[in-house]
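note to self — DONT lose this again. spent like an hour looking for the file last time. sequence + predicted structure for the chain T wanted, 94 res
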Amino acid sequence: MVELIILLKLTRSNANHAIARGRGPSTAKVYTVALWFLFEFFGLFIGTAICSTLDWPIKLTYLYLLAALPMAILGGFISTRIAKRGEAFYTPPQ
């Protein structure tokens, strides 16, 4: 649940960054969600592969989520870097 709240705040933030640079907010939201889930599933795949090769007891097999969450955060970080890239379209007067 916390992950979805963070994802919603991140999509809004990236949309605002995209608007400030003259790009569409919907594309920023789409690639934020896509990168988040793509990296999360990639981390889940890596964590599952590691846990299955180590032959751990059943109670410890949920440790694959520890690989999925940092990868999801990495996807969010990359999407923020993409949204902030480029020159600002509107700069407020100082």
